[in-house]
Design a protein that fits this description.
The complex is a heterodimer. Chain A is mainly beta. Chain A has two domains: 64 residues, Alpha-Beta Plaits (2-Layer Sandwich); 41 residues, no CATH class. A three-stranded antiparallel β-sheet of chain A has the order 5-6-7. In chain A, strands 1-4 form a two-stranded antiparallel sheet. In chain A, a hairpin with a 3-residue loop joins strand 5 and strand 6. Chain B is of the alpha/beta class. Helices cover 35% and strands 16% of the residues of chain B. In chain B, strands 1, 2, 5, 6, 7, 8 and 15 form a seven-stranded mixed β-sheet that branches. In chain B, strands 14-9-18-19 form a four-stranded antiparallel β-sheet. The longest helix of chain B is centred in the last third of the chain and has 26 residues. Chain B starts with 13 loop residues before the first strand and ends in a 12-residue tail after the last strand. Classes of the chains: A mainly beta, B alpha/beta.
Chain lengths: 108, 585
C-alpha cells in the first residue's frame, strides 16, 4: 500500500532539487503532483519498504496496511536520530508501544 | 529538449561514457565490488549503473535483521562445513562447490568490514558475534544499505543513479560495457567498459504473488519487486550460459503479508503447526529431517497440510514471552518494518495467538538457490569481459547478504585482473543506434497508438506462470503439457511486446521490466521442461515425474542464440569436492 501523504505537512522539500522521497524510493514511485505535494504515482506498486517514510523531514508520509489485509487502523511512526531510530507502534486497539535502538555504530 | 516532449529518436540525447570497470546494479554485491576494485587500484575508473538510488536500492532497501552466513571458527566451524551445510540445504545439490568454497573463505572479512563501517552487530558475552542459528548472526541492519552505499561512493566509484540498464554493449562475442536510459533525465546512456560486472539482483514478479488480487498490494512480495532480473535477461539476450533456473526459490512466509518464518523458527524456537495443532515438521515430516529439513521441505510441508485438509497453518509464536515478542519485532523493524505494522493491524497479541503462514510466489534468486549465470572461479560468465556476482551469479546457493558481498569482491578481483590485458574497441554506432531505437520505441509510438501498457502485460505473464508453470495458486505443481502451454503463450506475449506503449519514463522502465521478465520466463520454462523429475518438491514439482531421476544429478544449462532466438538446453556434471554424505549437513 502506498504511503499516505499528509498534504498539510508535505512542503515538497522546497530546498531540494528533488524531494527526498523521490530520491530514495527504490521503485521510482514518488513524485510531486501539480500542487507540489508528494504523491505515489503507481499505488499498487509500493513494496512498503518505508524508505520514504523514514527519510521524510516533515513526517508527512505514513505507510498503511491495505484494508483487504488488515483492520483499520494501525500506525507505525519512525523517528530518525543520528545513530538511533525510535518507532512508535499503535495497534488497532489503541495499544501504544515504542521501540528505540541503535542503528549505526557499536551496540556496546 | 525535455524528454517528455520527444517525438522522434533524434530528439533524445545520447551520453557516451568510458570507464575501466562498469558495475550494473549497485546493491550489496555491486557496492562491495566497487569498494574492492577501488581498494585494489585507486586509479581504476569504476562506474556503477543503478536503476534506483544506491542508498536505498534493491533487496536491502528496507533493511536487514541478520547475516545468515558467518563462520565462527572458535566454534570449530570452517568454510568446508558451511559448504557441506549449504549442499544439504539443497537436498544434496548439485551445487558448485568450487564457487561456494571460494566465497566462504573470504566471507567473514566482509562482515567484519560492515561492522567497522558502522553496522551494529549483536555480540555474545565473549565479545564474539552472537549466533542465533548455526551460521546466523543478528544485526540492527536498518541502515545496512546506506552504509554499504556510502563506502562505495567514498572509495571513489562514479555512480549513475536512476539509469536503467537495457542491454550489454558487445564487441562480437565480448562484452565491452552496457547501455540504458535515464529514468529521470531521459538520456540514452552508453557506458563503454573494459570489464563489466552484472549484479542486478534476482527476478521477482515472474509469478503472481498470493496477495496480488488485492488492490494496492500488487507488490506484497518477499523479494524486492523492483528486482526484475534485468541482469539475467541482458545475458540471455547476448547468448550467455545460464544455470539451474529451474531451482526456484520459494519460501514459507507469514500469510497475507510476506513476513519471515525461518527467523522465527531459527532464532526464537517458534515451530510450524497446522489447523489440528500438530507440530508439522516433527509429526508429519520427520522422515525429511523434521525441524532440520532443508528449506524446500519446510516450504512444501505447510502447503501439503492445506492440500490434505489440515490447514490453516501457523508459526507458533505463543511460546514467546513478552520480552521475546518485543525482540522479535525489533528484528523485523530492521528488515521489514511494515510487517510489524501488519501484525498491529491484525490486533493480535502474538504471545497468545499464533501467526498464519503460507507459501510465497516463486523467485529466481541466485543468492538463495543456484540460479543465474554460469561463471568460472574468477566469476567471469561465458561471455568474455562479463562477470556476475550475488543473486546474478549461479551455482552457489545460500549466499545471502554475507555471501553476496564476498562474491562482489571476488568478481571485482576477477574483473580487475582481466581488464589489465584488454583495450576498448571503437564505438559501434550501428549497435548503439539499434539499441537506442529498441529502448525508446514504447515511448515514441505517438499518442494515438492503440497499444498495451506494461502493467497489463505483466499481470498476464504473472497469471500465466502461476497457473501453468507451478505458481503458488497451483501449489507449485506443474506438468509437461501445462509448461508447453505457458511457453506458447509467452512467445505470443514476446511478439506483442512490440505493441507496448508508454507515456513517460517511469512507464518506459515498466516496459523494459516486462520485456526482461518475458526473456527469463521463457528460459525458465525450458529448464523446468528439461528436468523430467522432482528433485526439490515445492521448488520444482513435476506431477508427471514425481521421483528423483539419478541421471539428472547434474546442472541444467541453457543458452539462447542471439541471432535465431533458439534456446538450447544441456547439462554439466556435478563435481563433489567436499567428501561425505551429500544429504548430511
Amino acid at each position: 500500500m502506498p504511503p499516505k501523504v499528509e498534504r498539510e505537512k508535505c512542503d515538497g522539500c522546497k530546498a531540494e532539487k528533488e524531494t527526498l522521497c523521490e530520491q530514495v524510493c527504490p521503485g521510482d514511485l514518488m513524485t510531486l503532483d501539480e500542487n507540489k505535494k508528494a504523491i505515489c504515482r503507481m499505488p499498487r506498486d509500493c513494496w512498503d519498504c518505508m524508505s520514504c517514510v523514514k527519510i521524510c523531514p516533515k513526517g508527512a508520509l505514513e505507510t498503511r496496511i491495505p484494508y483487504q489485509l488488515g483492520f483499520h487502523v494501525a500506525k507505525l511512526i519512525p523517528l530518525m536520530g543520528t545513530d538511533t531510530i525510535t518507532w512508535t507502534l499503535i495497534d488497532i486497539n489503541g495499544k501504544v508501544e515504542r521501540f528505540h535502538y541503535i542503528n549505526r555504530g557499536s551496540l556496546d | 529538449m525535455p524528454v517528455e516532449t520527444a517525438k522522434k529518436i533524434d530528439d533524445i540525447q545520447t551520453e557516451i561514457l568510458e570507464t575501466d570497470l562498469l558495475i550494473v546494479g549497485g546493491g550489496n554485491a555491486g557496492c562491495f565490488a566497487a569498494y574492492e576494485a577501488k581498494s585494489l587500484d585507486p586509479s581504476l575508473r569504476v562506474t556503477i549503473m543503478e536503476k534506483a538510488h544506491i542508498s536505498r536500492s534493491g533487496a536491502l532497501a528496507a533493511g536487514m535483521d541478520a547475516i545468515n552466513t558467518y563462520i565462527r571458527r572458535d566454534k570449530e566451524e570452517t568454510p568446508e562445513k558451511l559448504v557441506k551445510w549449504s549442499r544439504a540445504q539443497m537436498g544434496g545439490g548439485p551445487i558448485r562447490e568450487d564457487l561456494a568454497l571460494s566465497n566462504a573463505e573470504i566471507l567473514n572479512e566482509g562482515v567484519e568490514l560492515l561492522e567497522e563501517w558502522g553496522l551494529p552487530i549483536i555480540k555474545d558475552e565473549d565479545g564474539e558475534y552472537k549466533l542465533r542459528g548455526r551460521y546466523d548472526i543478528s544485526i540492527h541492519g536498518e541502515q545496512l544499505k546506506p552504509i554499504i552505499a556510502e563506502k562505495a561512493m567514498e572509495a571513489g566509484a562514479q555512480v549513475l543513479n536512476r539509469v536503467v540498464a537495457t542491454n550489454l554493449l558487445m564487441d562480437e562475442d565480448r562484452c565491452v560495457g552496457a547501455m540504458g536510459f535515464g529514468v529521470r533525465d531521459g538520456k540514452f546512456y552508453v557506458v563503454r567498459a573494459k570489464a563489466t560486472i552484472v549484479s542486478t539482483g534476482g527476478a521477482c514478479g515472474i509469478y503472481k504473488s498470493p496477495v496480488t488480487d488485492y488492490s494496492g498490494a500488487h507488490h506484497q512480495t518477499w523479494m524486492c519487486p523492483f528486482n526484475v532480473g534485468t541482469g539475467y535477461a541482458m545475458g540471455i539476450r547476448a547468448g550467455a550460459e545460464l544455470t539451474s533456473l529451474e531451482q526456484r526459490w520459494v519460501a514459507v512466509r507469514t500469510k497475507d503479508f510476506c513476513g519471515p518464518v525461518d527467523t522465527l523458527a531459527v532464532a526464537y524456537g517458534c515451530l510450524m503447526t497446522n489447523g489440528k495443532g500438530e507440530r508439522i515438521m516433527e509429526q508429519r515430516y520427520a522422515h525429511l529431517g523434521g525441524e532440520k529439513a532443508p528449506r524446500f521441505c519446510r516450504l512444501n510441508a505447510p502447503m501439503n497440510e492445506w492440500l490434505e485438509g489440515r490447514g490453516p497453518t501457523y508459526i507458533d509464536t505463543t511460546v514467546l514471552d513478552p520480552e521475546e515478542a518485543k525482540d522479535l519485532r525489533t528484528d523485523m523493524l530492521n528488515e521489514r518494518p511494515s510487517f510489524v505494522l501488519f501484525l498491529a493491524s491484525l490486533g493480535i497479541d502474538i504471545t497468545k495467538e499464533p501467526v498464519e503462514i503460507y507459501g510465497s510466489d516463486p523467485y529466481i534468486v541466485g543468492g538463495h538457490t543456484g540460479s543465474g549465470y554460469w561463471v568460472d572461479i574468477s566469476r567471469m560468465t561465458t561471455i568474455p569481459g562479463l562477470f556476475a556476482a550475488g543473486e546474478s551469479a549461479g551455482g552457489s546457493p545460500n549466499k545471502f547478504v554475507g555471501g553476496c558481498a564476498a562474491e562482489g569482491r571476488l568478481a571485482a578481483r576477477g574483473a580487475s585482473a582481466y581488464l589489465k590485458n584488454v583495450s576498448l574497441p571503437p564505438v559501434d554506432s550501428a549497435q548503439v543506434d539499434e539499441e537506442k531505437k529498441r529502448t525508446f520505441a514504447p515511448f515514441l509510438r505517438g499518442p494515438a497508438f492503440d497499444g498495451i501498457n506494461p502493467t497489463e502485460m505483466e499481470e498476464r505473464l504473472q497469471r500465466l506462470m502461476d497457473e501453468y508453470a507451478g505458481g503458488v495458486h497451483q501449489f507449485y505443481r506443474m506438468n509437461e503439457e501445462r509448461l508447453v502451454h505457458a511457453l506458447k503463450h509467452i512467445r505470443k506475449l514476446q511478439e506483442q511486446a512490440g505493441l507496448l506503449h508508454v507515456g513517460d519514463l517511469h512507464g518506459l522502465m515498466g516496459a523494459h521490466e516486462v520485456i526482461d521478465r518475458l526473456n527469463i520466463a521463457e528460459v525458465l520454462i525450458h529448464h523446468l521442461l528439461y528436468r523430467k523429475e522432482t528433485r526439490w518438491p515445492g521448488w520444482q514439482t513435476r506431477m508427471d515425474y514425481p521421483e528423483i531421476d539419478p541421471k539428472l544429478d547434474c546442472f541444467v544449462e541453457s543458452v539462447r542464440d542471439p541471432k535465431t532466438g533458439e534456446i538450447k538446453v544441456f547439462t554439466r556434471p556435478y563435481e563433489q569436492l567436499i567428501p561425505g554424505d551429500r544429504l548430511k549437513p
